[in-house]
Amino acid sequence: MSKLRVRTVILSDVHLGTADSKVAEVTHFLRHVRCEKLILNGDIIDGWQLVRGGKWHNAHTRFVRVVLKHMEKRGTQVVYLRGNHDDVLGKFLPLDFENLSVVEEHLHETTDGRRYLVLHGDVFDTVTRNFVFLAHLGDWGYQMLLTLNRAYNHWRAWRGKEYWSLSKAIKARVKGAVNHVSKFEGHITRLAHERGCAGVICGHIHTAADKMIGDVHYLNSGDWVESLTALVEHWDGRFELVQFTDFVRAHPLPDEDGSSPQPGDEAALEAELAED
């Protein structure tokens, strides 16, 4: 099956260890891309939820194995940035291995020489940074909203309707949430401008974006809980925001056409990543 071949892939907010992580979808995406660099921009593993009793499933291990196979078979450079839900990593940074770097922030240079500041973005969230208890309380409320959203979408699926995100709809309509996103974008683009960067790449707020804010190119890779989006850099230096709903039309899930190997098939994974 054909692969999406790009220079760089950026993912964030996969939240492994939670019931609402769309791990099958993000693993399918990674199995069908080829890249020189893979940037995992924070909250890939949700340590907060795991401490509270979240479950780590085989599907979550498969995601990690696919990342490791990209490093082993393809020589992919992996950059893992600390997020707020995996903030325990902050005690050990920076860490450097052969093809893996675990860092607080990263400077990415495109093929045409533009520099992008890459960071998760939680440092610009006042609640997350200064009021840890309130941040955990807010996360608990968000998880409750996702649980309600999951039940609602089971009903929608039974009625033959497509997935609809309640939490995304609330964020798009509630004035406080809209203002929070706007302030976040303003703070992070100002930092990129001060660092002399052409753009900034972040995650954290689960709101995918590709736009200019003043003279700074603002990119947010979204998440794999609600948005199911990734950023890719093409070989000419051009960035593209990839929606999984579009991606899966060209690269169907196994249960859609029966031709793709099942996620747990290690031999199939080895064969996939050995392809040119």
Question: What labels would you give this structure?
Answer:
20% strand, 276 residues, Purple Acid Phosphatase, chain A, domain 2, 14 strands, 7-stranded mixed sheet, 10 helices, 40% helix, 5-stranded mixed sheet, alpha/beta
What does this structure look like?
The strands form 3 sheets. The protein has a 7-stranded mixed beta sheet. Strands 8-9-10-12-11 form a 5-stranded mixed beta sheet, with helices on one face. It contains 10 helices and 14 strands. It has helices at 23-31, 47-51, 58-74, 126-130, 132-158, 166-173, 175-194, 244-250, 254-257, 266-274; strands at residues 4-5, 8-11, 33-34, 37-41, 77-81, 95-96, 100-103, 106-109, 115-118, 199-202, 209-213, 216-220, 229-233, 239-243. A hairpin with a 5-residue loop joins strand 13 and strand 14 (239-243). The radius of gyration is 18 Å and the shape is globular. Helix 1 (23-31) packs parallel to helix 3 (58-74) and helix 6 (166-173) crosses helix 7 (175-194). With 276 residues, the protein is α/β, with parallel strands linked by helices.
Provide the fold topology.
Layout: E1 4-5, E2 8-11, H1 23-31, E3 33-34, E4 37-41, H2 47-51, H3 58-74, E5 77-81, E6 95-96, E7 100-103, E8 106-109, E9 115-118, H4 126-130, H5 132-158, H6 166-173, H7 175-194, E10 199-202, E11 209-213, E12 216-220, E13 229-233, E14 239-243, H8 244-250, H9 254-257, H10 266-274
Parallel strand pairs: 1-3, 2-4, 4-5, 5-7, 9-10, 10-12
Antiparallel strand pairs: 2-13, 6-7, 8-9, 11-12, 13-14
Helix pairs in contact: 1-3, 3-10, 6-7
